[in-house]
Amino acid sequence: xxxxxxxxxxPTGTAIVKAGSSVEYLTGGWRDAxxxxxxxxxxxxxxxxxxxxxxxxxxxxxxxTGINYxxxxxxxxxxxxCPPKVKAITMVEEPKLM
Amino acid sequence: xxxxxEIRWHSRGGQGAMLAVRTLARAVIKDNKYAQGLPExxxxxxxxxxxxxxxxxxxxFSLYCGIVNPHVVVLLDPxxxxxxxxxxxxxxxxxxxxxxxxxxxxVREKLKLKNGIVYVVNATKIAQETLGRPMPNTPMMGAxxxxxxxxxLEVLLDEVAREFKEKFTPRVxxxxxxxxxxxxxxxxxx
Amino acid sequence: xxxxAALTGNNAAAEAIRQIKPDVFAAYPITPQTEMAExxxxxxxxxxxxxxxxxxESEHSSMSACIGASLAGVRAMTxxxxxxxxxxxxxxxxxxxxxxxxxxxxVNRAFNAPLNIHCSHDDSMGARDAGWIQLYSENxxxxxxxxxxxxxxxxxxxxxxxxxxxxDGFIISHAxxxxxxxxxxxxxxxxxxxxxxxxxxxxxxxxxxxxxxLPDYYTxxxxxxxxxxxxxxxxxxxxxxxxxxxxxxSYSLFESYQLADAEYGIVILNSAAGVTRTVVDKLRKxxxxxxxxxxxxxxxxPATQIVQALKNLKAIAVLERTDSFxxxxxxxFTDISAAFMEAPTKERPLMINYIYGLGGRDVGLEDIEKxxxxxxxxxxxxxxxxxxxxLQARE
Lengths: 98, 190, 395
What we know:
Chain B is α/β, with parallel strands linked by helices and 190 residues long.
């Protein structure tokens, strides 16, 4: 669980003083369905990488290597944008209880 | 004891009363005394009757209000008497300085004055002859410091020369200085 | 060395701004502040003042530009009046809660309607809850002195809050009076350089300012702002003391004039305090124990100190140049009433609220004398029949 800070501890003037602090905010828990990537079908067209609003598609040497589930919110845009003839990304429901 | 002198100017917007009260205040302050030049209407409305105030003293004062009981009333434009009671609140020995071609006796009769001391100067004529324009404010300033000698004529001339040379040509500055001197010399009283 | 000067309130404010040397001055001219904005523009055009003068298209923009400039890490100033201040409204709490160090000259002017360009305190009093520090000035000298002190207060690292410095429209802004000015070097040394807490342009230390805060954090931000404002009184006094050493002119949270043994008191702000002081002198000569409390720092409200100064009086009139329509009384009256409610003292004077001087209505010696006379009547009766009244309204 996230620990909330008191008024004396937060920076003055509504400032967020640490650059890149959003890295610490893991949004993976928002997901109710996860995209699963099939390397065998993938043509590395990178449309998923272009469209992903969270930058959660991991790429190395122009090859899609997978999905960063720490940040993926499960929106499904990647699965929708993956060309119908390829269908390398399928949405799979997350378990209801951990 | 306070030696505060309160002066109420009556004129019409556009005749230079605001400039007169401000310039006089600046001259008196430069002479290391205390003064205030307070126009009643900020943006003067051309032609409308207006009031403006001067306070002079050798001591500090903190009166940020109009003048109800003036020691001196300056009538820059006597025609405002049709619209305003210019003698309102005056003392028995208050001075009335009027820009007019009439004698003090005639002014007293026309205004039905029971008290006060009348001074006259034809400031509009002086202005016409010196400036070529009917701007009576500068000769009236000269006349005023003659009857209220809070500063010398030289101090006033210095201040007007300093202020006017930033806005006007040397010829206009000289004409205004001449107008002040003539106002100072030509004012006469009861 | 002090310089003797003969200036209007607007001239004096422009002179202070010239000496303060803001990096950015973003203003929109509005009566009765116009002369001030014009003079600053002239200084910049003449090369006398090195300032980025932003001729904005509205007050909404002038305040926005100042917020951006202050957060970027430079000294930002503006000036306005009446509807201009109202048009800034949306930005005022942003400037405050983002802890900018903006200093704004306010030339108090009435709100429309009916259209009026003269003095009421509707504008700054309406903005009293925006989270700014507010200083009020009786005359041109105080406007000049308060503006310079305001910059030091606003930029202090323990405060970092914007400051509004107010003077009365026309009565002070357009009247020539005598004052003493500091040398340019003295002002420069007194103020030092502005150091922003989180300068936006420091590229090696990037920050995000003004991000969203949801219900889980919004309260903490407001609490922090509230505490900063409440605790600024001490620093405001420190700055006043330092300024007194430099200028020889002493300032406090409020001026107590003949209050120590007074029976009847008037609480008032700005130029009418001068008229009131003159009446106090007159009444004292007649043996009437009159006194005056002139508020200089209205936000934060020096509640404890004001209760201490007023608690032994018999009757007080709080005179205000604005009506808090439909309220218990106008702003200062309500604040003083609340201050007495929470004070440990049981002693409290009878207190009445008079609305005066609206839209530039002249308030003279007779008006103030009437108020002191009414306080004597109230004291004899031992009670107040109506705690709220218009002083000068014709029936």
